[in-house]
Amino acid sequence: MNTRLILLVAMAIALQLYTLDNVHADNSHGCSNSTLDGSYSYYGTGVTEDGPYAVIGTLVFDGKGNATRRQSISRNGSFETNHLSFQYSVADNCTGKFLFKGDEFETLVIADGGKEIYILKESAQTVYLLAKKIHP
Alpha-carbon distance 82 to 73, whole Å? Predict the structure, then answer.
C-alpha cells in the first residue's frame, strides 16, 4: 500500500511540474503593442464621484501604440456619446496603459492572446471595463 501511495504522489507531482512548465512556456511569448491590433467592443460599469456609471463602446488599435475609442456613457442617469484618439503602451507581461497627451488614464491587462482586455479606469472612480476582439 505504501508503494501505491508513493507512486500516486510521484505522479501528482510530475503532473503539476508538467503543467507549470507548459504555463511558463506559454507566457514566455509575452505581449507588446502589436498584441492589440484590430477592433474590440466593450462594456463597463462602476461608480464615479457623480454616481453610477455604465459605458458601451468600440476600441480600434493599430498595433503600433495608437488607438481610437467611441463610446456611449450613462453617468448617474445622464447620457453622452464621445470619441477619443489616444496612445497605448503594452509591457512584456501583458499589462499596459492608455495615455492621452502623455498622461495615463486607464490601466489594462491583456488576456487570451489579445482576444480580451480587462481595463480599469483611473482617478476618483471605481470603473472596470471588459473588451472583446471583434475584428482582426
Answer: 8
